[in-house]
Automatic annotation (TrEMBL), chains A, B:
Residue span(s) of domain CoA-binding: 85-186
DNA-binding region: 22-61
Lineage: Bacteria, Bacillati, Actinomycetota, Actinomycetes, Streptosporangiales
Protein name in the entry: Redox-sensing transcriptional repressor Rex
Keywords: Cytoplasm, DNA-binding, NAD, Repressor, Transcription, Transcription regulation
Keyword set includes DNA-binding: yes
Superkingdom, taxonomy of origin: Bacteria
Organism: Nonomuraea antimicrobica
Protein function: Modulates transcription in response to changes in cellular NADH/NAD(+) redox state.
Amino acid sequence: MKSASQPRDRGIPEATVARLPLYLRALHGMAERGVATVSSEDLAVAAGVNSAKLRKDLSHLGSYGTRGVGYEVEYLVYQISRELGLTQDWAVAIVGVGNLGRALANYGGFVSRGFRVAALVDADPEVVGDTIAGLNVEHIDELEAVIKRRGVSIVVLATPAAAAQKVCDRVIAVGVTSILNFAPVVLSVPESVDVRKVDLSIELQILAFHEQRKAGGPLMAVDGQ
Amino acid sequence: MKSASQPRDRGIPEATVARLPLYLRALHGMAERGVATVSSEDLAVAAGVNSAKLRKDLSHLGSYGTRGVGYEVEYLVYQISRELGLTQDWAVAIVGVGNLGRALANYGGFVSRGFRVAALVDADPEVVGDTIAGLNVEHIDELEAVIKRRGVSIVVLATPAAAAQKVCDRVIAVGVTSILNFAPVVLSVPESVDVRKVDLSIELQILAFHEQRKAGGPLMAVDGQ
DNA sequence: CCGACTTTGTGCATCGGTTCACAAAGGGAT
DNA sequence: ATCCCTTTGTGAACCGATGCACAAAGTCGG
């Protein structure tokens, strides 16, 4: 590579960004198994995508492959990690320590690469003060203070639906611009804030739709038996 | 296509299907608040989308609005529910009763409309036999039997990554064709099987990417204070 | 050093989805 | 009954993403 000094286009397609973590995971697996280089074809299979798409995705980060050979696994891991911002570590706060919040706090893959659960916050006096996954649960009144003190830049909302918007507003007010929302509500946020939503019931409903189609066929009995 | 007798085109765009649950949720809220009719503009705002998109989405189900007035809330709820297959009830099995599986089993919104957690399955003898969310946890050896006995048609995978593919193969072998996968692996399944993936760490990585761009700008300080 | 072979990177056609903008359709007032 | 006002439903332009197919670029054996 010659002038590879500034490969980042500053304009990576959203669809590509969403797939990079997938490639990264596949590459990590390969690195662990001692694979040194990989072709776009093999990596594509491992990531469950088509190889042309994979090559185009990677081409957005720069020209990191060698024609006739493939990609060097370690190097590609580094480049993708870097592009995704995983070379620094991100402090994450989880707000809402119900069943889901607890599960997230204990979730291994969460904490693994680049991310660190730095704070747990809840409103219920019953759980405030408890230690979960080695962390003290702090009171929601302390929300702003905790976020600043721990340098939190990503907030995970695992609160009940009714509380989500309020918490959201508060964390935005102290400068948080990235939110992962598990509460089943549409959050209203300024343009500059990034919200990603994970909604279990929506996923189920989409599955049900397709399942119904498959089961039903041309004419289905809607009859209860 | 003239004969509008069969408004369902049998070809609803995937993007539309993914938004219908959103509209449905907004409509349920309105119905509870006693709203009788709603314009595409208002519903769009409530669902967080653009009104033209909403109208086009709804037009795929049929012509259920009244020009100059809007949509009748109750009626629209029914039509969307019907289209999504929520008028019947779906038996869901959760495989893997770790932190996440437990959270899912207890998740209210899960069980609410159309879905019913019908079985919990795990491999750990420690938890088999426990009662969680009113359900007995059954042993993974019973997987096939349980699925058949309870009429499960949707399986939620909340197992460790290493176990997911095996469980997946087994449930497919007994006829399951809809899977919601929380394990961080790419499942390999036949064409006919529908897999949706929820991956917490991928969502975080996407957020980190954007956060980095925002924070970083041209040259960023990675300094921890 | 050359020629055959492999695999990348990408131009181009295509496709699905989004958005605009407006004619058609209905309600309500006069 | 007629006209005006509101809001739907959709044709058409646009935009981003996908996938094909191939030239360019590199490796490796002889």
